[in-house]
From TrEMBL:
Modified residues (3-oxoalanine (Cys)): 92
Assigned protein family: Belongs to the sulfatase family.
Alphabetically ordered keywords of this record: Glycoprotein, Hydrolase, Signal
Glycoprotein listed as a keyword: yes
Catalytic activity: an aryl sulfate + H2O = a phenol + sulfate + H(+)
Keyword Hydrolase: yes
Pfam families reported for this sequence: Sulfatase (PF00884)
EC number: 3.1.6.1
Signal peptide boundaries: 1-17
PROSITE patterns per record: SULFATASE_1 (PS00523)
GO molecular function terms attached to this record: arylsulfatase activity; glycosaminoglycan binding; N-acetylglucosamine-6-sulfatase activity
Protein's name in the database: Arylsulfatase
Amino acid sequence: MRFLAFLAIAGLGQAIADTNDTSSFTDHNDADQQIILDGDHSVSKDRPNIIFILVDDQDLQMDSLNYTPRTMHHIADQGATYRNHFVTTALCCPSRVSLWTGKQAHNTNVTEIYPPYGGYPKFVAEGHNDNWLPLWLQDGGYDTYYTGKLFNAHTVDNYHSPFATGFNASDFVLDPYTYQYLRPVYQRNHDSPRSYEGQHTVDVLAEKTLGFLDDALASDTDRPFFLAVAPVAPHSNLEMGDENDTTTFRFSAPIPATRHQHLFPDAIVPRTPHFNPDHPSGVSWIRTLPRQNESSIAYNDEFYRNRLRALQAVDELVEDIVQRLEDADALQNTYLFYTSDNGYHIGQHRLHPGKECGFEEDICVPMFVRGPGISPGMEVTSVTTHIDLAPTIFRIAGLPLKEEFDGLAIPLTETDIQQDELSRHEHVNVEYWGKAGFEGVFGQAPDGGPTTFYNNTYKALRLISPDFNLYYSVWCSHEHQLYDLTRDPYQLHNLYPAPNTIPTTDLNATSYIGPYPISHIISRLDALLLVLKSCQGSTCIYPWKELHPAGDVHSLRDALEGRFDHFYADQVKVQFGWCELGYLLEAEGVQYPLVYGGGNGDGLGWSEWV
């Protein structure tokens, strides 16, 4: 089972010390320095502070934001809402590593939640502990703080092997207690872990957050601060039958604070067309799922209600943070980010509670930013991703961007938004390796653990533009998906021409999307995905240039010009050598596309990209 290995890595042999939360330490104590922006503009010492709130598994598509009025009032309504914001890997640890490094998961090589392909040990082994956002910010003149969940497999046994670097002060919740709402274990700075059994994990986090915020606001270093706050809500709760038996566990509904347990008694998962549909959808293991029965639906509705209830403590914490900033007269010089590490599904496509899929529920997440220069109530429709957030924080901090970044800073001001709509890329590179699983009673396997599905490895492309709204994926099983979300927003009708697709007559579908033959669209999407699946740096931002070095193609619409038909018909295709549980280059299939014009830009032929 996917979590058994995680618990084995976590280990349960170390006693938890009941120490006081008093000491602090500094990894970097560099003197404040003058930062140069764009090579010639010095940045003043009163640079803005940054607070980043990263929740765990919050959905966007199931209306959870309707139940967090404080977050909406204090951040979304007072700042910018990013309507098309995506994660690039719909799983906790890979998504978080990508966020804090600005790199796609195929470049971090952290693709799972536990070793050998993921988790904190993999993060360390790949060298990221010495090269990631908090260290960069400290070197750039910021004080840095972090509290809450960092990564999976960051445990009571390995938290000091080595300590996470880059923080003036930190207080991490540790495995195997990370997802135990009423039995959390936190580890402050270089102290031993401390158990908070009987206290709600988000309430413990709130106290630690406000303590760090007070420290940062009271600092006399003249350095701005970065504070990351990572509650585990509304992630599911981990139940362990016996600490000495790591095979006895399950994921159940999250546990709200006592004061919130009575809320929302009538809330149910939105009954959208793809909720427990009459006909199967998707490919691979998803297509084999049976319809849920009444008992399962009722259980999952209560699971959903407890997710909403668990979010209430987070919603209160958001208000407390804003109030503390306001009391200190620091709110106007502070950026506040709010987002989730991935989305979530319950019932859509017959799926039991979980994530890890490429459907909109799992990859499109809440994203709000308020701060200096951001007009209240702005809405941004440009495509943005978690890969773009490290570059965005660099821009706010006045730091020169790193060539290794795979993303592009998101627009923050009205001027930025107007320019961005004209020039920003239209694609999201989605990728996943390994297994998928369900949470909750009806998602259990016969042995009592979570149901696990293998061969959940896929490369996918989400593309949004004035002309197209598409999702395309290639699976390690050689199955494909193509959805036109303009006509099929719930991704029920796979347009890829294959024998395992369901009829699409109710869409009045033809072999065209708009004026373009589907076969032509697929050939372009596949070529674009082939570039993105192994991209690095600027290639991830401007992938069409790798296919068309002359620079005359910038979008799918450009690539659909008839003069390119033969080029794309002859293009090599995305494929896997075999299904693997992690990123192994030898299993990834072909890496390089053909280049139009042989790389010379003359349009007279094409050659292999080398």
